[in-house]
Amino acid sequence: MAREWPAADSYIEQAEVFTLTLHQEKSLLQAVEQFDRFKTDMLLDDLFEALGSLPYDSPSVSNAVNELIQLADKIWRKAGSKDQDYVDDDLPLRYDPASPEMIDSAKQRVKQLFRQLIGKLSPEPERASYSPYVVSAMQYVNARYADNISLDLAAERAGITASYLGRLFKQETGVYFTDYLNQIRIDNAKRLIRSGRYKVNQIYERVGFSGYNYFFKVFKDSVGMTPHQYAKSKEEPDGPSS
Known about the structure:
Blueprint: H1 22-33, H2 37-51, H3 59-78, H4 101-121, H5 132-144, H6 151-158, H7 162-173, H8 177-195, H9 200-203, H10 212-223, H11 227-234
Helix pairs in contact: 1-2, 2-4, 3-4, 5-6, 6-7
């Protein structure tokens, strides 16, 4: 699935205190209004990856996290649901930095906040909750993406037919199983490129692609640049944050 947000430093507005861009707000708003949990998670992952390059106690981090929480409230109010609360548990209302681990903690809490928001807004609650079969498939992909896995193997693990899992996965996540698998592989390829430990042509097999040409195509479609361009951009001071 192609990314919706720019790959450069426009992830966060350059100001005295960084703020979310208008494009980010629109992208998140659209994903929530479409009840698309997968896309919402991916957008939030991208943002928090950019925030992770900043000091955990930076005002920019707390400002961005608090703006995300305010955005969720704004979406809820826009839907006309003012008399009810979309948060089921005691999620923190503000980011209170205490250690570097707090960024990861804030990421998980904000993602949970948006998941609950989608669950409350969805006219069909089942669309906002992944079934055990889809959860099983997603866990399988995240654990075994570097292996030669497929929809058939994921379905066998879940105990259902591949055709049924394929339909269910698309209905619940909004993307096809193969697109989800490729995106997880590309995200990990980007991580390996950023580590600087491997050459680009050594990475594709490490993340599960059987051939470089297909890896090249999927990477460019997803990231908006070739693997070598991405690697070069990471060597530059103002390169992409993700």
